[in-house]
Amino acid sequence: MAVIRHHVGKRLSETAVHNGTVYLAGQIAEDTDQDIAGQTREVLGHIDRLLGEVNSDKAHLLSVQIYISDMVHFNGMNAVWDEWVAQGNTPPRATVEAKLANPKCLVEVVVVAAQRS
């Protein structure tokens, strides 16, 4: 099966789909003046949009890696996550503190999902 890429740029593609599995690039907020709640909401909105473009959604998440710039933001990020995630379909997830490429970014989320049948 072919690999289908979307939003292809010089450095990365925002999504790649292979054999019914969707891989998203790390998603960050564009408005980095927001606090952790605002940045997390924006990032999850990007994920919703990108998954929707490839016939998937948050109920089909297979795994999620969340990178936060400082663990002080953990509870704020989780409050937004808990409102967003599809209850009953919560994915395997890891959350780690990491130095992100842009110091104004507080959170980056990487997702793997299945396409809807």
Automatic annotation (TrEMBL):
The lineage of its organism: Bacteria, Pseudomonadati, Pseudomonadota, Betaproteobacteria, Burkholderiales. Gene3D superfamilies: RutC-like. CDD domains: YjgF_YER057c_UK114_like_2. Coiled coil: none annotated. SUPFAM superfamilies: YjgF-like. This is RidA family protein.
